[in-house]
Design brief:
With about 210 residues, this protein is an alpha/beta fold. Helix content is about 30%, strand content about 30%. The protein contains nine helices and eleven strands.
Amino acid sequence: MEYLTFALAKGRLAEKSMEILEKIGITCEEMKEDSRKLIFINEKLGYKFFLAKASDVPTYVENGSADIGIVGKDTLLEEGRNLYEVLDLKMGKCKFAVAGYKEIKEKLDSSMDLVVATKYPNVAKEYFYTKKKQTIEIIKLNGSVELAPIVNLSDVIVDIVETGSTLKANGLEVLADICPVSARVVVNRVSMKLEYERISKIIKGLKELVVD
Ligand code: PRP
């Protein structure tokens, strides 16, 4: 039997993903040990798991290095890969939002020279260019984007907001909601055909566990 390979987003989401997979009998004891290993195998059940950086999960699945991936919708929207998004796990819920000082709100709606800092340039472009038909300048950052408006690098940020505590702690607030985000199951297009039975059984099992 060929291994069925899962790409998981390293960190909290991988832990949550394994918790839900365990409930449908997809287990990996070795993964529970604290180690720097990135690939794990359950020989008996024929599963392989690997831990990738979240933003790389869609790449591994699109290219067939993994058959199935579990990753946030934020990453899927930003990466825009060619794969099947088969299930919303409704966990890891948060949202994309435009945030900044509340005083900037007026400029947000009118300005043609708004500067937006973000880890998600494609999401920001889609929102401002396509949806709002507004020309903006985008500055790509790699994290702690809340800094940008504070140090005058940008007018606003486009970022993930979960509890809102990072914004609050830095004197910023949500100025506009973009869209909700949650963890999704994605499947490689070829694997879906070649491993249809095993994969659809997994999707069905997971679907029964999804709670709103
Ligand atoms: C994310 C996001 C926000 C924060 C939102 O950052 O970019 O900064 O979490 O969460 P909250 O609304 O619950 O405060 P992450 O912790 O992934 O680190 P990063 O800043 O390096 O991207």
